[in-house]
Amino acid sequence: MERNCRILIFNDTATIDGGAERSVVLMNRYLNRGQFTVEFASCSGGEMVSLLALEDVKTSILDVPPVIFEQRSRLLHDPLQALRFCGALFIAGHVLTEHVRRGEYDLVYTYSMKGHLVSLISTIWHRVTTVWDIREVVVPRWFIAGLLSLARFSVASVAVQAQRTQKFLGQWFPIDRVVHIPNYLDSSELLIRQSRAQVRQQLRLDEDSFVVISAGQITPNKGFHILIEAMQSVPNANLLICGSVTSREDERYLSSIQEEVQRAGLEDRVHFLGYRRDLLEVLAASDLAALLSFNEQQSRFVMEAMGLGLPVIVSDVGGLRELVNPPDAGCIVPAGKPEALARAIRRLQDDPITRHQLGEAAASRIRTAFDVQHHISAKEAFFHESIDRWEQKDR
What we know:
The protein has about 400 residues and is of the alpha/beta class. The protein contains 16 helices and 13 strands.
């Protein structure tokens, strides 16, 4: 019988920016509580604190210098602020170390780049099994190469959702410690409380209009500007963009794409809806989901769209191809190519039979290939094996 393991989930913030945070919250719902005791710590408050409390997860807020929340663009152009940021990272690492010592945790789990950095620094003072869940690789290649070259000595294992990412990271981190764990979706969570007609009425969309939806944190990486450019070549269609901004960089990007919408005369067809708690209802009221990221593993937004039976168009990056398994359950287009995207949208707009077939295949693929129990079993084994490997290394 496996012993009970004390796990600390750590992140720099407790805000919910997208699917990664929602997946972490739901993971706690399914983990075997007889084998795992989970707590959460962050450097600021946020919605995750209240959501995890509903799952009976104890939460803590660590006291660190606020400069740790500084955005990358400011750091690149302000050497003094960059120096302060580095100092704040070391302070946060030390604060995390003391928290881990007091809590006597068996494992520290992080899922964001700043979380990875702080946990890596923390291992300078206290050796504890540390694992990273790398969701996106949106930093420069030299940075990830240097980070993983250091991490190989103090991080037990790395989890990734896409096989492509596993091979990529294996260039600098031992490949046998980079574990491929596909994302998951619990189909029972796909509860729709309002009808398609009701949602469309609230959004002031005609019942017979063709609606494309895209969602995610509002960043250039998500490729919303590519979608907007493509929509100029797709007549009689609406685009819904759902997502929040979390930084000044994101705010500037949002302003730039809103200005592009105005320049193109698309104000009546492109709608910015912000962060939506009712995203599932908005998805169900749409005809097509699209995500044109430049770097992505297995997007929860795309999985939810597929689970609801929507056809999807995604860029050929990261784990998106593995997710939709083209051509059976979705369409693939090259990243950064609005012309190819526009052609794919127009083809599905004009062919409701193919849309229906793709939607049915997508829903079936989610049910069979991305089952929640398979994911949780793999994640539990990942935690146990990481602890065992690190303890054996210390002997």
